[in-house]
């Protein structure tokens, strides 16, 4: 296997010059640059990326820890994060934690050993100290860790208010809210708080169910149980579109006519929301903008620029067939 020394000998330059060409550092004449590239091609030389990163003290790798890429919201978010990272010269190391604290900790150790330049944290199992001790640029998704770690979220409270009021304004008399896990104090829990505030203010009968992030079949079991215990539910605010889609499936199995017998509002506006039948009314998070912003915040930290701690992006109501 060819080495950088071999490239230098064939190109008749120093090893330092080859290194400067590879790392695009300093002035190198076009003639010299061509000689180095011709030698690399002739020898089929492949630079040792780990060695280069040690030399530059920069790996151009970003760690991304999410609960599971099987969940459509995180799949779409990951897609945009990878896209904007690549545009700026970075590659992503993707870690699925499955909300397992042991696995998440192992991934953190792996990312540290691979000398990533920063970490995007979208899994919520470990305590803040585990991340603060890394001494790396970090951006959190939907979790306010500390005054030293910026986070990105959408305007969850406003989204919850819009969703709940829409159901009541459309004639629903008994509402259910199927929330995510309420164990951790996360910005996403403001969807639940908004629901409570609205139904209390408007004196509407309501039920609240809490779920853990899981596969579609688990959501369906929860929805089946809800309808068994409360068959007169006529409006549901689901804290994610994946849950909302599960509600549509179960309701159709039970012979409920949507939106006549049951109206549904989701949250996220993943691509599937417009493809299911009936199409799902939802609160749209700007997923692409979130993916772009998280990369920019991370790189700004790497470059020691000042960044905003709280980054709350606006939401919009997208009305479709489950409420119209």
Automatic annotation (TrEMBL):
Residues 2-56 form the HTH lacI-type domain. Keywords: DNA-binding, Repressor, Transcription, Transcription regulation. CDD domains: HTH_LacI, PBP1_Qymf-like. Pfam families: LacI, Peripla_BP_3. SUPFAM superfamilies: lambda repressor-like DNA-binding domains (SSF47413), Periplasmic binding protein-like I (SSF53822). It comes from the Bacteria. This is LacI family transcriptional regulator. It comes from Clostridium gelidum. The lineage of its organism: Bacteria, Bacillati, Bacillota, Clostridia, Eubacteriales.
């Amino acid at each position: 296997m060819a080495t950088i020394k071999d490239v230098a000998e064939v190109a008749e330059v120093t090893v330092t010059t080859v290194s400067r060409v590879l790392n695009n550092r300093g002035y190198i004449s076009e003639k010299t640059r061509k000689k180095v590239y011709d030698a690399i091609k002739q020898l089929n030389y492949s630079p040792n990326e780990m060695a280069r990163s040690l030399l530059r003290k920069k790996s151009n790798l970003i760690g991304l820890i999410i609960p599971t890429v099987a969940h459509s919201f995180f799949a779409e978010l990951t897609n945009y994060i990878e896209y904007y990272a690549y545009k700026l010269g970075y590659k992503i190391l993707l870690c699925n934690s499955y909300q397992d604290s042991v696995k998440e900790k192992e991934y953190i150790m792996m990312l540290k050993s691979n000398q990533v330049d920063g970490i995007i944290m979208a899994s919520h199992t470990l305590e803040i100290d585990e991340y603060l001790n890394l001494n790396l640029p970090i951006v959190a998704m939907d979790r306010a860790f500390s005054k030293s770690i910026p986070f990105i979220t959408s305007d969850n409270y406003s989204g919850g208010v819009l969703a709940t009021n829409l159901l009541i304004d459309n004639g629903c008399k008994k509402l259910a809210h199927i929330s995510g896990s309420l164990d951790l104090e996360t910005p996403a829990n403001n969807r639940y708080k908004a629901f409570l505030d609205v139904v209390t203010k408007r004196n509407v009968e309501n039920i609240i169910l809490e779920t853990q992030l899981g596969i579609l079949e688990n959501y369906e079991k929860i929805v089946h149980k809800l309808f068994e215990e409360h068959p007169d539910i006529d409006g549901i605010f689901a804290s994610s579109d994946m849950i909302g889609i599960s509600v549509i499936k179960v309701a159709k199995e039970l012979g409920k006519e949507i939106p006549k017998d049951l109206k549904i509002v989701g949250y996220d506006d993943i691509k599937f929301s417009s493809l299911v039948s009936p199409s799902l009314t939802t609160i749209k998070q700007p997923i692409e903008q979130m993916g772009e912003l998280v990369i920019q915040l991370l790189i700004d930290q790497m470059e020691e620029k000042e960044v905003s701690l709280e980054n709350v992006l606006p939401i919009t109501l997208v009305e479709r067939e489950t409420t119209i």
